[in-house]
Amino acid sequence: MLERFRYPWIGTRSLTGFNLFRVLAVHDCSVLVRNRSIFNFHQGVRVLVVVPLQLIRRGNDGNSKRFEQEESIRERSGVRTCAIPVRSNDLPFDFRFSYTESSPKVRPIGLREPKYSPFGPGRLDRKWTGVCAPAVDPTVESLEGAEDPKLEEQRKKKREMIQGKPLTTDERKALVSQFERSKTNRHVNLGRDGLTHNMLNVIHNHWKFAEAVRIKCMGVPTMDMKNICTQLEDKTFGKVVFRHGGTLILYRGRNYSPKKRSVVPLMLWKPHEPVYPRLIKTTIDGLSIEETKKIRKRGLAVPALTKLAKNGYYAFLVPMVRDAFLSCELVRIDCEGLERKDYKKIGCKLRDMVPCILVTFENEQVVVWRGKDYKPPKDGYFLKDRESFEDNNDDLNVAQEQQAI
């Protein structure tokens, strides 16, 4: 019996089930599969791809009529009448490619591609704005950071329902010791893209077999570990019970059920990043062209504050730059060996978190200037290297229970 799938390749060829599953339903093409075991990753499959007429490049060879006749036969036979099931989703947050490396407060000035939904055509009941798939009807104001307060209430209620009663100190310690590196090798890597949308499904897959999952954070996202912990708890409805450097342990909750969890729709490809305003301007605000050139020349000659390693842990960078601004006005960070996108993101995070003024990215260096009227921030950015997230009120609660008895 023939089974119909959608597949973008043209022609008849032998494919593995993995490749067929990877690019399933990317374009509007029909596939006739004669083998039911298409998801067996070690067995080849012979597929016949039926290409729509609008994708066929017709010439003067007289084959256009034959293609039209074949297309009409397929339509009459009902081969292409089955529609793609639209997946409705009740997750109370906007779908983005990266939740930690993109801010809803920053509005892009343009798009690099048409608004094609990365979830596939007709597979999600949300509109793709080019930046995100909002949980509510998209408007122009929604991209400026004004979030619906009802969504926050829904997330809070759902998280409280899943978490249930908080863990005690002994339960936390037992959970942390169970998921140490020496006890298990199962973990999730969080790289330069930060917490991506498809990573939510990976975390839920780990939670099918264990109460918690270890997450190893590397690269640019580690500059703001507080944001990573917040986004993980907000999007997965879990709880971070331990953190040491860039390693987290995320607990799923007492009332978590893999069968009742919300289904996370997968993105089929990575969407292009929108166009944002330039980070480095021709002239620094408040300075002339000559003064800007002098500052850039001086900044490249300043001794490097530190040299960043690829896929390293960068949480120390913000307090280090703040301390350096107390004695000098220019700071240079050596990013040799890092990709250009990475040290641009580092400069953008320093601008927002220190704060400071970006000077140049030349020669794989990040040079920042503290400004003319620099005042150190009153609230110091201090993040412990190790956090256990213990409940300090456990002893107090035990004493109160003994008194009540």
Give the SSE layout.
Layout: E1 3-6, E2 12-16, H1 17-22, E3 30-33, E4 44-50, H2 64-77, H3 149-163, H4 169-178, E5 187-190, H5 197-207, E6 212-217, H6 225-236, E7 239-244, E8 247-251, H7 289-301, E9 304-307, H8 317-324, E10 330-334, H9 340-353, E11 357-360, E12 365-369, E13 386-387, H10 394-404
Parallel strand pairs: 5-6, 9-10
Antiparallel strand pairs: 1-3, 2-4, 3-4, 6-8, 7-8, 7-13, 10-12, 11-12
Major β-sheet strand ordering:
5-6-8-7-13
Q: What is the rounded Rg?
A: 27 Å
**What is the assigned CATH homologous superfamily of the largest domain?**
YhbY-like
**How many H/I helical runs?**
10
CATH architecture group name of the largest domain? 2-Layer Sandwich
Number of domains: 3
Biggest sheet details: 5 strands, mixed
β-strand amount: 15-25%
Helix content: 25-40%
**How many strands appear in the DSSP assignment?**
13
Organism: Phaseolus angularis (Azuki bean)
GO molecular function: RNA binding
Protein name: CRS2-associated factor
Pfam families: CRS1_YhbY
Would you write up a description of this structure?
- With about 400 residues, the protein is an alpha+beta fold.
- The protein folds into three domains: about 5-75, no CATH class; about 85-275, YhbY-like (Translation Initiation Factor IF3, 2-Layer Sandwich), CATH 3.30.110.60; about 290-370, 2-Layer Sandwich (Translation Initiation Factor IF3).
- The chain is built from ten helices and 13 strands.
- It has a five-stranded mixed sheet, with helices on both faces. A four-stranded antiparallel sheet has the order 1-3-4-2.
- It is globular, with a radius of gyration of 27 Å.
- The protein starts with a strand and ends with a helix.
- Keywords: mRNA processing, mRNA splicing, Repeat, Ribonucleoprotein, RNA-binding, Transit peptide.
- One of its GO terms (molecular function) is RNA binding.
- Pfam families: CRS1_YhbY (PF01985).
- This is CRS2-associated factor.
- InterPro entries: CAF1P_plant, RNA-binding_CRM, YhbY-like_sf.
